[in-house]
Amino acid sequence: MNYLEIKVSKCKTHFLFEEKKLFEKSFIEVLKFHKEGFAPVKDESGSYHIDINGKPIYNERYLRTFGFYNNLASVIDENNNWFHVNIIGKRIYCENFSWCGNFQENISTVRDFQNNYFHITSKGEKLYEKNYLYAGDFKNNYAVVKQKNGLCKHINTSGKFINDKAFLDLGVFHKSFATAKDKNGWFHININGNELYSERFLAIEPFYNGFALVENFNNTKQIIDELGNKILNV
């Protein structure tokens, strides 16, 4: 049985395999299985993770558990402290946070008790010295951070800014391009932070195989190419 074949029921209280209830057990809440082969569940004893045979993979119980990413999962203890645990349920560092993200590319975003966002390594160490208003997940070696001045920039896995450009809002890089917003609206940029075209939009999506859906300020939608040429109305 492959983890991809196990589905979560609509009521999110049990699992299904070939449309039949799996493990013959219901929970208070379940989340989907991840590639590691484990799923977060909650029953009367608390929250924990199970394997594809429905067996707990450790003895510890938490207030809440989330999915495994890079063999590490975010959990909340009875004191509302957030941290990450490994696949035997043991925390991997001593620090507590007010919120934890998931490990993406072996780096996780976290929020401390002073509401600062930053990234940590799998050892719980800060990736860099700075604190931010917000820090997003890494994707393809880059992440978005929002500075204390309210402007957003991209950083690399060393915590360094990848260019000297800053924007009102940013998206992650997808196939060499990212979405960005300035005072005039949304547009697309390259790795150097340079605009691909001069047009601005009310809303945009990342490029999908060379084309992107955009919304104009009159609420009409169009498809554009990577040069900003309008291909068709939708």
Report what the structure shows.
With 234 residues, the protein is mainly β. Among the domains are: 1-92, Thrombin, subunit H (Beta Barrel), CATH 2.40.10; 171-234, Thrombin, subunit H. The chain is 0% helix and 38% strand. The strands form seven sheets. The chain has a four-stranded antiparallel sheet with strand order 19-20-21-22, with no helix packed on it. A hairpin with a 6-residue loop joins strand 13 (134-135) and strand 14 (142-146). The mean pLDDT is 96.
The coarse silhouette is globular
Write the element-wise H/E pattern from the N-terminal end onward: EEEEEEEEEEEEEEEEEEEEEE
Mean pLDDT: 96
Unreliable spans:
none
Which strands sit side by side, in order, in the main sheet? 19-20-21-22
CATH class of the domain at 1-92: Mainly Beta
Number of strands: 22
What is the beta-strand fraction?
35-45%
CATH architecture of the domain at 1-92: Beta Barrel
What's the gyration radius in Å?
21 Å
Distance between the termini: 42 Å
Main sheet specs = 4 strands, antiparallel
Q: Give the count of helical stretches.
A: 0
Proportion in helices: under 10%
Predict the CATH topology of the domain at 1-92: Thrombin, subunit H
Estimated structural class: mainly beta
